[in-house]
Predict the structure.
Amino acid sequence: MAITVDFDSDNPDLTSDTDTQNEIFLQIFNSGDGELFDKLYRSDAISNFSGAPLTGADRLKFFKEFLASKPVLQAEVTHSYVAGDVALIGVRFVIDGTTDDGEPLHIEGNCTDVLRRGEDGRWLMAIDRPVAGSLLPE
């Protein structure tokens, strides 16, 4: 993984800067490290990436399994609004890789993300709501 933005891997921060947010998110997703990727999420965050709303241990399990094959994410921020400690981010994304069966994997769509700044000042994912034009393989 080529690091283009430095970040603390123990306590990653998506920051309030849209370009930096996107770059950190891409770097960590594309690393294939599901445990590190889950650190971008608040403990109570909801991710619908699997097709079902997941939190906590279920969300972590999904991220670890899905990212293990190291799919590649490309993402472009389409809009970003910040109000105090909350940010609404729109993203157009494409994910390419292979399934556990060796079949090609291609997912593309749009995502609406809500980030919140915590008491420690870090910006983390609160809601991750991708809507894929093609669904995840079952």
Observations:
- The chain has a mean pLDDT of 90.
